[in-house]
Design brief:
Helices cover 16% and strands 35% of the residues. It is of the alpha+beta class and 220 residues long. It has a single domain, classed as Sandwich (Jelly Rolls), CATH 2.60.120.620.
């Protein structure tokens, strides 16, 4: 019985040469297209210092409580060795709609440029968070939920003047070393909700931030 020899792909194959997307990555690899989702992106001066202070005042007036995590049984629990922060929830209303309007504009712009995720809105109120010295922190975690809202894009706004606190760096984990993002007041940090991240302990002062999760169709 004769065994047919496999045909070799010619080096000058026009299907390969005319398609910049296709690349040989390994002996068993033939990617149809490249991943278009960036790991993270940022935008400066989304909110002015005056607007940041206004958001902090709104968040404080809502009487922040100890932040919670989702336990093994699916219930919310306080676990200070994992998360030590105070949180309150800023819902859309006539006094806060200016925050939502501005965030919608910047999210649509950044998503189109860097992530291209299908987003439909925001199903949870914005979270105002305070990390206080000597050890306010949040260990590494992801925002993507199991059996909950379909969080696809996460957003963190740096509200506090960085000269007013020490520590509290937001870290994104991509490889073996964490990426520490900027602390500039009014800066917005965006990343897909499945990206591992955390907040280092605040060693002096207080760091306030505004967090939001933008939802969409299920990941496919």
């Amino acid at each position: 019985m004769k065994v047919k020899k496999k045909k070799k792909i010619k080096k000058n194959n026009p299907i390969i040469e005319n398609n910049p997307i296709i690349k040989y990555v390994g002996a068993n690899s033939w990617p149809f297209q490249r991943d278009h989702v960036e790991t993270w992106a940022w935008a400066k001066d989304v909110f002015s210092p005056e607007e940041c202070q206004k958001i902090i005042k709104i968040g404080n007036n809502l009487k922040p409580q100890l932040g919670k995590i989702i336990g093994k049984n699916g219930q919310e629990i306080c676990k200070k060795n994992v998360r030590k922060s105070l949180t309150s929830w800023i819902s859309p209303n006539p006094d806060t709609e200016w925050i939502y309007i501005k965030l919608q504009q910047i999210v649509e712009e950044m998503n189109k440029k860097f992530f291209k995720l299908h987003l439909t809105g925001i199903n949870e109120s914005l979270q105002f968070t305070k990390y206080q010295a000597p050890d306010g922190h949040y260990h590494t975690h992801i925002d993507k939920m199991y059996n909950g809202y379909i969080r696809k894009l996460s957003l963190t706004i740096q509200l506090t003047d960085p000269s007013k606190y020490e520590g509290g760096e937001l870290q994104l984990f991509q490889q073996d070393k964490p990426l520490v993002v900027g602390k500039e007041q009014g800066t917005a940090i965006f990343f897909p909700s499945y990206v591992l991240h955390g907040v280092k302990p605040v060693t002096k002062g207080e760091r306030c931030s505004l967090v939001g999760w933008f939802t969409g169709d299920p990941f496919k």
